[in-house]
């Protein structure tokens, strides 16, 4: 049993082997459990799950991506800064800030953006000393933004709100950063399912992302409940955090 755990769960974290069918399934199950835990905790704390919570958590998703990219740059590895550890670390950080601020979403958001500013400054310093691919930064962000603008023009009612455009942007960013990094910079995909898609062409991954996020927004907009908002927050997390990481890795050249 221990050999199985070591081979499929522990070793991939420290060797960079990436994901396999076993840890992918386990992480997916843990993420679903985590959503229920968030729903329970917000209910217990009487914090409504809506757009205010989305914007309060948004900087922590960006911070997670920046921290993960800095861990890629740093020669010493720590499991708390690698999936799944970084999700546990960020969750603990958000809970700690919420408690310290008296469960104030405004204060939690301010602390989050302060962390982003600090991590962003460190990223800029590392990039300046290394690759500093500023053109790459604008290319990926520009592609993601252009995709959302085009989708907004084609589906104005579907992306009518700023929050839905943010949901779409988070996935467009992840898809753009991944596809461009693999096709132009020689990076490799570590996730199992997306790896299957990208075997044909890395940009197919971006297309699949766009189609799925539009379908998700359409479905969730019919779900006028806190679960709808929670799932939108989860989609932003799953797009923005890895997208920020991939973008930052290419920017600093690791």
Tags for this model:
10 helices, mainly alpha, 254 residues
Biggest β-sheet description: none
Beta strands, count: 0
Class by alpha and beta content: mainly alpha
Order of helices and strands: HHHHHHHHHH
Helical stretch count? 10
Distance between the termini: 35 Å
Mean pLDDT: 87
Q: Which regions are unreliable across 5 or more consecutive residues at pLDDT < 50?
A: none
Fraction of residues in β-strands: under 5%
Proportion in helices: over 70%
Number of domains: 1
Shape: globular
Rg, please?
18 Å
Please describe what this structure looks like.
With 254 residues, this protein is mostly helical. The protein has one domain. The protein has ten helices and no strands. It has helices at 2-15, 21-44, 51-73, 85-100, 105-129, 134-154, 162-185, 192-198, 202-220, 226-252. Helix 3 (51-73) crosses helix 4. The chain is globular, with a radius of gyration of 18 Å.
Which helices and strands appear, and what pairs or packs with what?
Blueprint: H1 2-15, H2 21-44, H3 51-73, H4 85-100, H5 105-129, H6 134-154, H7 162-185, H8 192-198, H9 202-220, H10 226-252
Helix pairs in contact: 3-4, 3-5, 3-10, 6-7, 6-10, 7-9, 7-10, 9-10
